[in-house]
Each structure stands twice: as C-alpha cells, then as structure tokens.
Amino acid sequence: MKYPIHYRGTTNKSHLTPHQVCVRPSLLVRRKTQTNLKASTENLDLIALASAQENYGFAIVCLGEAIYSFVQNPSLDHVKILVPAILSAAVLIFVSGAAITSDNASSLAFGLEIATAVSLLMGVTYVLRLINPSPSPKEAVFLGLLLALAGFSSFSQNLLVAGFVTLPSLPPLPSIQLPSVPSVELPSLPEIRLPF
Hints:
This protein is mostly helical. The chain is 60% helix and 2% strand. It has helices at residues 25-72, 82-100, 105-131, 138-161; strands at 6-7, 21-22. The longest helix has 48 residues, at 25-72.
C-alpha cells in the first residue's frame, strides 16, 4: 500500500528540499524497522560465519590434540583419550555446525549453545587429564585446555552479542557523598634575583 506524499510550503514540486517533504509517520516507522531488521540480519550473518569457522576449527583442534597425544604413546589403555575428542568433533561438525550454518536465527542460537556446552565439557576432560597421571605430554593437554577456554568464551560471547542470551542487570549502586576538601592557601615565596 502506497502512502501519498504531502508537500509543505511550495506548489512547484521540482524544487523541493528534503525539509519540505513530509511523509506519513507510519511509513517512516516501517522503513526504520526494515533497516533495523536488515542490520540485525547482517549482524547474524557475520556471527554465523565467525561461529562456523570457530566451531569447525575447534573440532579439528580437539581431534588433532587427541591424535597427537595418542601417537606419543599408543596403547589400548590410551585409546580413552580419543573417545571424548571423537564424540565432541562429531557433535561440533554434524549437530552444532549444521545448526550454525543454517539461515535461521533460532537454529544459530541452538548451534551456539551446543558448541558452548561441548567446549565446556572438553575443558573438563582436559582438566581431568591434567590432574590424573597420563602417558601423553601435559603440554599438549594444557594447550587443549586453553583452546577449550577460548572456544567457550567465544561461543558464549557470540550468544550475548547476537542477543540470544541476556545477562541480568545489577541494581544501581548507592551514591556516596564525599566530603569536600578544605582549601589551603600557601604562602607566597619571595622573589629571588640573581646578582648577574
């Protein structure tokens, strides 16, 4: 539905300035809403792109660390290192990755929530591997823990930036009146003249 444009202050419509054109307010609200939706859609597209790269990268890093740690001392008892990494990589690629790369905002939120939970669980497995004796080098496990923390902070930050999760606001702090500092006048120093 088109709204008529009303002109103020002139009968010759070829010499109009932007201030002389008056558009119905409902049309302005509609255009502003469409602009906000377009901006939020572009923002969600950027978040989805960055999150998909982080998601697949985190899956590859989890698998790479587990394979590296297993190859350092391959044994049947040491296979337990591969299980959480394979499961988390499968969830990150097939569940979270598919949800993040879709064009739907609700599935993007679901994918980010899954990726946040997986990074948190992988962080717990890395902490358990650091605490317990393991034939794999602790440096690789610690690097995996750092990357799991980075993944958790990145995925949770994307949830906050996209507006899927909101943090509760703190109550306002009470205002405190500080006492005024008394003014002190310093004595003036005498003028010193050099003899030359």
